[in-house]
Design brief:
With 780 residues, this protein is of the alpha+beta class. It has 5 domains: 130 residues, Orthogonal Bundle (Transcription Factor, Stat-4), CATH 1.10.532.10; 133 residues, Up-down Bundle (Glutathione S-transferase Yfyf (Class Pi), Chain A, domain 2), CATH 1.20.1050.20; 146 residues, Immunoglobulin-like (Sandwich); 218 residues, SH2 domain (SHC Adaptor Protein, 2-Layer Sandwich), CATH 3.30.505.10; 64 residues, no CATH class. The protein contains 23 helices and 19 strands. It starts with a helix and ends in a 6-residue tail after the last helix.
Length: 780
């Protein structure tokens, strides 16, 4: 509504013809602008493409809202005549074609801003236009609902700051206009006083001259007062501009930090339009203030007293220009040499860039030490620590999105120069960044400015086997870096309370699920990383070190905590995401806790938990009858990624008849039924005429504790993988026809399998296993 408040000061002085042209009575009367001022300024008029008829429903929605709001205003008005006028306006608005209405209102707002001396349209954004169905009220402006560091919404605060700045600039301009009018009157009065003729009587002449002198003195006094007020307003406005720009630059830094946090699943609003609008508005105010300072100097006959103002505005302008470049789309944070990647850099003052020579953006790799020296005299040395392919791009303007971006496509790191490492530091712990630089000239500025920005930290690897450890470095850096840190400082140890949030966010982000890790899962992860098996342990006050996270192997295991956790995420992402999201997987739980929750459950009760003994495995823990008539908890050998590629988890659970109810007491066929593959229909015969086959999962020893509802038959057999025969026992020309007597000797039900369909033997060493050499799929 601030824009209309400013316009009301000018509307009173505009001629009738100008008002009619600005607010056409038949399309959008000035009264409608007045009554719906706040609502109108909050709508996304600038997002409409008036030539795109697919946006007609959204335009109709806005038109319907205008009608309804005017009727509500009429009902609330006590004046009968005013109520009838508002009802008439509502009826007229309903007769205007929706797209014509959008075009008209957009032009009105643009012209108003031109009258107010503001640059660029003030845009309202609430997301995609298609999200608002016809007839539904259009949401009010809410660019960023989050507060930053406990402070009010920065974008809302910026709007308030800009409103204040614009009002200050208007006051300065009014003072200047008043002074010019007073100067004109003074010149006239002085000239008129000099031309007084003598025919008057002396007494009349003295009286007239006295009145004239008093009039001149009053005008001179007013002129001086306006002059003082003008200079004072300039000082105050520059201070407000400085504070507002300081908040903008901090907000840009916060946006970058939020982008960093998004790498581990933290919420992030990537929309840069509000920041771009803020930058453009500050630039516009700065330019107007510099003009006003020049005019003040001219009116005073010398610019010397106002040189300090000019210098301060010049420094603010330089800082704004140099702070307006951001990496819109980050490159991968783990980059393998000789592999392609891309990134996008955006300049937030792109609409104000001087036309003419194209702006070339250059990219180079910098070390952590070089990144710390950015902004310092001689900060970036000439030393080249890496060779980048396709390291230049042109800043290009996109008229539809009103943005200016440089898209680096098909970049790659040809080679990298490593720094000297300390102690046990690995190459996967060394952080680099990509620095972008350019020389940019802004319209109205006398010189070009050097502008630079830097990516988030990246780890450069040379082999895929390094990816896991490199990602650990990135996760630690993203999760525990502080805002406005020195690049790329990160603590060596962090509270478990921060770590548990990080693990849950990363798991949700990586798997692509809305289901987080619960307290049971997180408690077990704490037991794992701290090597404290006690189920009742309180970990809230403990600190996790980088070594515990991904340097030291877990007790009795050949892998670190992160390598194990990352393996679980990979398995869940590729094969278990739906099961996890539907709450069918218990997840992370220790065996001690497992016995506590299952000990009183009936036979056949089971749950799914991630294996803690191998990377990327999920196992079934179930209640089985013990030999003494009691119960015992059994854990089936974990299913890995390869197992689940052969037969899905749902089918494997259906195969095992001795597990009947999912913890706590849900029949397994009710909850896992939708995941059974035969829900997709029967398997058709093969095109060659062969009957189709399938694989069934069985568990060795399951016959020792049959399910309550059925018993295992002799046809249900253990996997072939349980039986092995050294290759030394087979002739060199071994083929499937030789297999029958040998397999039958160790596997009594061999005749139930179609040995004729088994592939021919492949070459192998004597130490390889018989079934592996047959290449027969043993994951049953």
């Amino acid at each position: 509504m601030a824009q209309w408040e400013q316009m009301k000061l000018l509307v009173q002085r505009l001629p009738t013809q100008a008002l009619s042209e600005l607010y056409p009575p038949s399309t959008f009367p000035m009264d409608v602008r007045h009554y719906l001022a706040s609502w109108i300024e909050d709508q996304p008029w600038e997002e409409f493409d008036v030539e795109n008829m697919e946006q007609e429903p959204q335009a109709q929605s806005l038109a319907s809202n205008i009608e309804q709001l005017l009727l509500e205003q009429a009902q609330q008005h006590q004046n009968v005549l005013e109520r009838m006028r508002l009802q008439d306006f509502s009826r007229k608005m309903g007769m205007v074609q929706p797209m014509m209405l959008v075009r008209t209102v957009r032009e009105i707002l643009r012209k108003e801003r031109q009258f107010l001396g503001l640059t660029g349209p003030r845009r309202a954004h609430f997301g995609h236009l298609g999200q608002c169905p016809p007839g539904q009220a259009v949401p009010r402006l809410s660019p960023s609902p989050r507060a930053v560091n406990g402070n009010p919404n920065p974008v809302t605060k910026s709007n308030q700051d800009m409103d204040n700045l614009v009002l200050k600039v208007l006051e300065i301009r009014n003072c200047r206009q008043q002074m010019h009018e007073l100067q004109g009157e003074l010149n006239w009065e002085r000239q008129d006083g000099e031309s007084m003729s003598s025919p008057m009587h002396s007494s009349e002449l003295d009286k007239s001259q006295l009145e004239k002198q008093q009039r001149i003195q009053q005008l001179e006094y007013k002129y001086q007062e306006y002059g003082k007020k003008r200079v004072q307003l300039l000082h105050e406005t520059i201070v407000i501009l400085q504070e507002c720009q300081k908040r903008l630059i901090q907000r840009i830094k916060d946006w970058r930090w939020e982008q960093h946090q998004a790498s581990i699943g933290a919420p992030f609003d990537e929309n840069l339009v509000p920041l771009q609008t803020w930058c453009e508005q500050l630039l516009g105010v700065n330019v107007q203030l510099r003009q006003e300072v020049i005019l003040v100097g001219q009116d005073h006959g010398s610019s010397e007293p106002f040189a300090d103002m000019q210098d301060r505005l010049g420094m603010l302008l330089k800082t704004l220009i140099q702070s307006s470049m951001v990496v819109d789309k980050q490159p991968p944070q783990v980059i393998k040499t000789q592999s392609k990647f891309s990134t996008t850099v955006r300049y937030l003052l792109g609409e104000k860039v001087a036309t003419g020579k194209p702006i070339l953006l250059r990219a180079q790799i910098v070390t952590e030490v070089q990144a710390r020296n950015l902004g310092q005299p001689g900060g970036i040395t000439t030393e080249n620590v890496g060779e980048l392919i396709n390291s230049t791009a042109i800043l290009e303007h996109n008229p539809s999105s009103k943005s200016m971006c440089a898209n680096f496509r098909n970049m790659s790191i040809k080679k990298i120069k490593r720094a000297d490492r300390k102690g046990s530091e690995s190459v996967t712990e060394e952080k680099f960044a990509i620095l972008f630089t350019a020389d940019i000239a802004i319209t109205g500025c006398d010189t070009a400015y050097g502008v630079q920005t830097i990516t988030l930290p990246v780890v450069v690897i040379v082999h895929g086997s390094q990816d896991n450890n490199a990602m650990a470095t990135i996760v630690w850096d993203c999760a525990f870096s502080e805002p406005n840190r020195i690049p790329f400082v990160v603590p060596e140890r962090v509270p478990w309370t921060q770590m548990r949030l990080t693990l849950s966010r990363k798991f949700m982000s990586e798997v692509g699920t809305n289901r987080c890790l619960d307290d049971n899962n997180l408690h077990f992860l704490a037991q794992k990383i701290f090597n404290k098996p006690d189920i009742s342990e309180d970990f809230s006050n403990l600190l996790v070190t980088w070594s515990q996270f991904n340097k030291e192997v877990l007790p009795g295991r050949p892998f670190t905590f992160w390598q194990w956790f990352d393996g679980v995420m990979e398995l869940t992402k590729k094969h278990l995401a739906r099961y996890w999201s539907d709450g069918l997987i218990f997840g992370f739980i220790g065996k001690q806790h497992l016995h506590v929750i299952l000990q009183n459950k009936p036979n056949g009760t089971f749950l799914l938990r991630f294996s803690d003994s191998e990377i990327g495995g999920i196992t079934i823990a179930y209640v089985a009858p013990a030999e003494n008539g009691g119960r015992r908890i059994q854990n089936i050998q974990p299913f890995t990624k390869r197992d689940l590629e052969i037969r899905c988890l749902g089918d494997r659970i259906r195969d095992l008849e001795f597990i009947t109810h999912v913890y706590p007491d849900l029949p397994k066929n009710d909850v896992f039924g939708p995941y059974y593959s035969d829900m997709l229909g029967p398997i058709p015969p093969t095109t060659e005429g062969y009957l189709p086959t399938t694989i069934t999962t069985t568990v060795v020893g399951a016959r020792d504790h049959p399910s309550p509802s059925s018993s295992l038959t002799d046809v249900q057999m253990a996997p072939f993988s349980q039986f092995t025969v050294p290759m030394s026992q087979f002739p060199q020309d071994f083929s499937p026809s030789h297999a029958a007597p040998l397999v039958a000797a160790v596997y009594p039900h061999f005749e139930d399998f179609p040995i004729a369909n088994m592939p021919a033997n492949q070459a192998g060493t004597p130490d390889e296993m018989f079934l592996q050499d047959l290449d027969f799929d043993t994951s049953m």
